[in-house]
Amino acid sequence: MATVRTGDIETYYEQRGSGPAIVFVHGAILDHGQWTPQMEPLSDDYTTIAYDVRGHGRTGGSARERYSIELFAEDLAALVTALDLDRPVLCGHSMGGCIAQAYAARYPDRLAGLVLADTFAPEPLTRGEWVQRSLLLRATVPPVRLLGYERVERALVWLHERLSRGASGDYGEIERLRSGGPRMATDEFAKVIRAVARFHETDLDLAAITTPTLVIYGENEPAFVRRHVPTLETTLPDATVREVPGAGHASNLDDPDSFTRSIREFLARIGFADPAHGTE
User: Fold this and answer.
1) What is the CATH number of the domain that holds 254?
2) 217 in Cβ contact with 118 (< 8 Å)
3) In a domain, 274, yes or no
4) Distances in Å between the alpha carbon of 48 and those of 13, 151, 263?
5) Chain segment 198-239, per-residue pLDDT in tens
6) What is the DSSP letter of 167?
7) Ordered DSSP codes for 38-82
8) Nearby residues of 62 by Cβ (< 8 Å), 6 or more positions away
9) Distances (CA, A) of 112 to 23, 90, 118, 217
């Protein structure tokens, strides 16, 4: 178990392998364990690092009353600096993809590559999406305080599956991952969810992300996430898009082999390799 000081918190992280560094940023209400299916095979050729975002896992909460995607991105910048990482590749899922966008827009010269998985751009594309992201997300907080986020999320998964079959992917794997780590405090849940709900307020210019980028998404993604794929592809200056067949929103867990293969192909395309290690 390793931690490093990043601003006003101690950030928990796990590191494997050697070679050029890949930093993984998990989705909301998950933790670093989300990335085990990628860290294990990729650590043969790379240094793989996954950490717990503020409010999550073994990093846990903080005294701040309000979180934001910008704050999470600054935590990430402090982690990269503390670990003395030289132009790593950054891979973020869902909320982690939002954090990765904010980091890449602010520090484009500090990255060798960017992977945006199952995520979305700051600006909602439809009125319905704005309602879903800005209002309905916040509306989950009161029932979570009453019932706990596990029960509320199961109900939402049930609803999503009836609206868009396959969107939730292998939800049992999500539950299994959560069972192995600390339970998130309800107050931290509220701060994290409100940060995601305010992502559209982030001062972020996608055109400023000049880093080579892989946009990857599951075939059965929720519709609002799929709608953002063309936006990311056309707005980011150097973007490649890959679909994970049959996968839902957690495409790295639903089909780990296909997801990891797409990352390897992207890393080979951008020449991200240590001559002493190479790539497969």
Assistant:
1) 3.40.50.1820
2) yes
3) no
4) 10, 33, 13
5) 999 999 999 999 999 999 999 999 888 999 999 999 999 999
6) T
7) HHHHHTTTSEEEEE--TTSTTT---S-S---HHHHHHHHHHHHHH
8) 8, 9, 54, 55
9) 11, 8, 20, 21
